[in-house]
User: What shape does this take?
Amino acid sequence: MPVPAVRVRATIGVPPGRGLGSSATAVVGGLLAADAVAGRVYSTEQRVDLLDAAVELEHGKHADNIAAALLGGLVVVTRDERNGAWYAIRTFVPANLRAVLFVPNFPMDTILGRTLLPTGYTKVDAVHNIGHVALLLAALAIGDLKGIGAAMDDRFHEPYRAHIFPQLPDLLCAARAAGAYGACLSGSGPTILALAAEHAEEVAMALEETAHALNVDGRVIIAEIDHCGASVEADPYRATSKVDKSQHGGIVLSCTNCEIHFTLGRTDYRCDCGQPLDVALGNIGTEMNSIAWRQLFDERLRSLKAVDRSGVWRFRDLLLPLPDITPITRPEGQTNLYLVGRSQDNGGYRRIGEFAGLDQLWLKHEGENPTGSFKDRGMTVGVSIAKWLGMTAVACASTGNTSASMAAYAAQAGLRAIVFLPEGKVAAGKLSQAIAYGAEIRQIPGDFDRAMADVERMCLDDGIYLLNSLNPFRILGQQSLAFELLQQFGWDVPDWIVLPAGNLGNTSALGMGLLRACQLGLITRLPRIISIQAAGANTFYQSYQTGFTEFHPIKAKTIATAINIGNPVSYSRAKAVIQATNGLVAQVTDEDILHAKAIIDRVGIGCEPASAASVAGVRQLVTKGIIHPADRVVSVLTGNLLKDPDAVLLAQRVALGEV
Ligand code: F0G
Assistant: This one.
């Protein structure tokens, strides 16, 4: 593989040679930079796995510094005696806590510093220090800042090292007197660390003045506490809009992992820790009560204006209240909710309820969107934002539907569209749409996951706007599925909502929408969400089986090409949603999918194979007794029958028992 030319500029935020872990920081920085060049970006969980390799690079030493540089925040690190592996946990640090450092100009010899320490400690001192570690962790856990300060009192190092740093006690006292919660000698060098919140400036000043009075040369640094660990800053990772979009009514991008916020101008949509960013809407939606919101949304149903009729923009006040945005809308949404349970007296449709074993079953047919799939809900918002940000070209990787939707909305908006498709793995209807709507097509010799990695890289390199569901505005638009469904239910709540799952954007969006509706009082309880995967593309299901403790990307293979995905981008978002709604994940075979599809097709409703996975899953869970026959269930059909004409005959043959 050709290695790209790179120029590396490393910035270590701490002065070297002062016992502050600069050498460990350099090792971690180098390791992550090399991985980033190779296209690997790690989540926090994955970074823990790098610990052993990084400690080895540091000659088996300084695991404490390595772990902190890797993970950020306050880290507890320990070695597992059984297998010799290092293990680290990052604990919570109150957001307003700041570190004030006083870095003296004289180097403190680490070896000399160590030789000053006694060979043994009294039991009283040992209990004192260990007890203070416990106090520190407990204080951090509950955000008790005074407790944190008390916990910094040290009897192992400070009293002995003060011999070569006689001014130390006075400096520590000065910091505490100026409002620091605690102060101590940091690491093995001469630097003083004080922790403070609102009085950080006063503490800095007190340290400076006291050091001056005591004739100690040095400098004071006020540092924000880093919550993510080392980050690789290549220009592409900082893709931002050319138009200034920094201030927007409290709407920001946020990383739920690191609790960091970014302005809407940042367009790479991944935090430095690798986690996809979400749109944080702050207090939006709390300006009216739930009755007023419902009335407004119900009134808009009677309007003839496209933005009111759209099943996305009808809810604009809750989704994206940007006054200066022009919606690019068809209008989308407003899809039918078909009653297909056994208790319905509606002839043919009952057959689906009989097949699934349910008295009350509804099909929400998202294949009735303008381009024939649920993707239009997210795409109308994604493309509108692309225009608002001043972008001229958009791109996505797709198993087909996203590309069809993006191509159509980009054409409407006058934007250049580039789609990355896994060669030979896209259903005919979808490919035809992308071609017809004028997208530039790049066939990727590989699967969707490869196309996804390629397109993300191209977007970063060339400043093209990424419109996969990694893009949080797509997820935001797709949340409207929850609002529209609830409105169709008269703001009542079904027991279960079941949907097919691939890249996990839709599971995430539906859940986030429902949680939001609940927070705003539009509903008073949550339905349980069920994600159904194809058995050949079941990485989310496998992870669910381990209680979400493990996650392993796989090579996917299913006839339902739309969900033929082995490394879903929205894994963490979807995991949170399944946990928050007490939901579950199940898998169905290709045969189950085709069988369900044949039944849905036969009654005249029809859908593409991936969509039928939801009904196949419902049937399985009713058979297993997990869904009760009297439960109220909504199954989401995500794509239109015409998307995949080749699957029609195959499904009929499966239903007739010929395959
Ligand atoms: N159903 C259909 C018809 C789809 O096209 C997709 C995804 C899904 C279900 C799964 O939704 O990814 O949000 O979990 N299609 C994407 C695409 C990947 O490129 O069109 P998900």
Q: What stands out?
A: The chain has a mean pLDDT of 90. The pocket of F0G is lined by residues 373, 375, 398-402, 469, 500-507, 562-563, 608, 610-611, 638-639 (CB under 6 Å). The longest helix spans residues 123-142. Residues 503 and 653 are 29 Å apart (CA to CA).
